[in-house]
Design brief:
CATH topology of one domain: Spore Coat Polysaccharide Biosynthesis Protein SpsA, Chain A
Structural class: alpha/beta
Strand content: 5-15%
Number of strands: 12
Helix content: 55-70%
Strand order of the largest sheet: 3-2-1-4-7-5-8
Radius of gyration: 27 Å
CATH class of one domain: Alpha Beta
CATH architecture of one domain: Alpha-Beta Complex
Length: about 575
């Protein structure tokens, strides 16, 4: 066989086909494990939202490590404070002394909000994200001593995260039985034309739908996703005691993955949370350009596939070792996938020759690999379509090729960077990608029907909702009919309306409201719009309302105040009492 392009292509065809077939069978095993995990989850009991809201709240510390995050930090903190349906938590924002812009924003947030605290690292940055997290932990300990308080759970987030309304509720619930709780992480939806970000939508959808549940079902370690991870305090303290006070390993570029493995090796209980009937997940924008995606994935490959291999080898149970193999096979699989794309295109252009002859000889094997590949793309499209709709799902095939290019280049760069660092005995640095915080429209979840939310969250049965829909009077609302039939309490209804509208549900008492604030809007406006001012907080005018206000209400109120306005749902009887006693 000559060393021509055709000869080399023909030579590579067999080993490449064998690898793809082995990898495809490996993926089919995980498909089966994911299916079994899904079937088991259907039999497991979860609390309904009504029960979830009544569970005693442990004190939670949210760690936000930062390096040059001043453009997004303010919106992340203020936006999530309004969104999160939990009371007993504090933000600890980690920053470096040479990042003056981030410090300025964090100081401002600290002055505005009593549950936001700056955790300043003692040395210039950037170091590693893990190092920053370790210093945040130490600053939290100082805060506890000075305030005589104690945090029960630590949750990690990044400065671009959109935290789900009930995320902390679920972490709080599972923290009684598990040492590490992982909330799913998904990219925010973007247009089909946003190809690079679409790759993240594809891979995260498949990973969260199949791989994470399969890992748990097989008894393997659950890696932290870096954000939306809750650690019970005792679990982190055990890491500190065993490893020289290093809760997060400073030398690791993927301290999240590392911590999942470290905890597992100490027999910690871990869970990946899948909430039936609701898409509870941490959302964020991921890199949206080819270059930034390669940069981020270079860090992932370096940390997950290379550093962890060097530090831990093939350790743990058979299930742990199997998943270590899956996490590291990308070192071969990523370049192999791109090479398969290249050979496919070459085969379309070339007829005959050594390559054409080899195609004929390997016909049955190549047919199997083609079938495996088509199934893999179809399965990914199904996972994406479930979460993002059929338009995004239909664009999966071309994005697979783009993903292969990104992952291959990241793999090559990771091996080069890792080899250079080892040869020169240099530390690996925190390779940071620029972050973007979404606009208000991107934060709004798709509006779900009230009946679906009532059933999904355990407030009513499907039969009760159906009966109420069939028997309600013309113009009568579903919630009103369910209350009338005795199937639903008024407070329960407002808890679900709060979930549907993403508005806080509050108890406001007249004695807590200043008449000056209550009368800051004309009486005519209050009566017409059904909104009553009850507090000024952090430069915002908080308005009590007995119903979900239409979109025009905010702009109508803004004609009479320079403050931003925020609506809080209150029970109708409580609203009438406020109006009666304050106006």
């Amino acid at each position: 066989m000559t060393f021509s392009v055709d000869g080399i292509a023909a030579f590579l065809l067999l080993p490449l086909a064998v690898w793809i077939l082995i990898s495809g069978i490996d993926d089919l095993i995980i498909d089966g494990a994911g299916l079994l995990a899904w079937l088991r989850s259907r039999r497991q009991k979860q609390p309904g939202r009504r029960e979830l809201l009544r569970i005693a709240q442990r004190r939670i510390a949210i760690f936000v490590p930062c390096w040059q995050e001043s453009p997004v930090l303010e919106r992340m903190i203020s936006g999530n404070r309004e969104r999160v349906n939990y009371d007993n938590y504090d933000f600890f924002v980690g920053a470096y002394p040479n990042d003056v812009d981030t410090i300025r924003v964090a100081r401002d947030l600290e002055m505005r909000f009593n549950n936001v605290h700056l955790a300043l690292c003692p040395h210039p940055g950037p170091t590693s994200k893990a190092d920053c997290l370790n210093w945040i932990y130490q600053r939290m300990c100082l805060f506890e001593r000075s305030r005589l308080v104690a945090f029960d759970v630590i949750v990690t987030h990044d400065a671009e995260d959109v935290i789900h309304t009930d995320s902390l509720r679920w972490i709080n619930f599972y923290s009684g039985d598990y040492d590490m709780i992982q909330i799913p992480v998904l990219p925010l939806p973007t247009p089909v034309s946003d190809w690079t970000h679409g790759v993240y939508c594809d891979e995260f959808s498949e990973y969260q739908c199949r791989d994470m549940p399969a890992r748990q079902w097989m008894g393997a370690f659950v890696p932290s996703n870096g954000v939306g991870t809750g650690y019970v305090r005792a679990a982190l303290e055990s890491l500190a005691a065993d490893e020289g006070n290093r809760i997060f390993e400073p030398v690791c570029l993927t301290e999240d993955y590392e911590n999942g493995l470290r905890l597992r090796l100490r027999s910690a209980r871990q869970i990946f949370v899948t909430v039936r009937g609701d898409e509870v997940s941490t959302r964020e924008f991921f890199p949206r350009t080819f270059r930034s995606a390669v940069k981020q994935r270079t860090r992932w490959v370096t940390g997950i596939a290379l550093q962890t291999w060097e530090r831990h080898g093939w350790t743990g149970s058979w299930a742990d070792r199997y998943w270590l193999w899956r996490d590291r096979k990308g070192l071969v699989g990523n370049p192999a996938s791109l090479l398969a794309n290249v050979l496919f295109l070459y085969g379309l252009m070339v007829r005959g020759g050594a390559f054409g002859q080899r195609l004929g000889e390997l016909g049955p094997l190549l047919a199997c690999t083609a079938a495996v590949g088509l199934y893999r793309v179809g399965f990914r499209a199904y996972c994406v379509g479930r979460r993002y709709g059929w338009r995004i799902g239909a664009a999966v095939p071309p994005r697979v090729v783009l993903a292969n290019c990104i992952n291959t280049l990241a793999t090559v760069r990771a091996m080069a960077i890792y080899a250079r660092a080892r040869v020169l005995s240099q530390p690996l640095r925190w390779v940071k990608t620029a972050h973007q915080y979404p606009c208000i429209s991107a934060l709004q979840p798709p509006r779900r029907m009230l009946g679906d939310l009532l059933v999904a969250n355990g407030y009513a049965t499907a039969q009760q909702v159906s009966e109420a829909l069939e028997t309600r009077a013309e113009g009568q609302r579903l919630g009103e009919r369910l209350i009338e039939m005795g199937y639903l309490g008024q407070e329960d209804l407002y808890e679900v309306l709060s979930l549907q509208s993403q508005l806080p549900f509050s108890a406001v008492h007249p004695r807590e409201v200043s008449q000056r604030v209550a009368r800051s809007l004309p009486k005519r406006v209050i009566r017409e719009l059904q909104v009553l001012p009850f507090r000024v907080e952090d430069g915002k005018l908080l308005l009590a309302t007995p119903g979900i206000p239409p979109g025009s209400t905010a702009s109508a109120v803004k004609r009479f105040t320079r403050l931003d306005v925020r609506f809080h749902l209150v029970l109708p009887d409580q609203y009438q009492r406020l109006v009666r006693e304050l106006l």
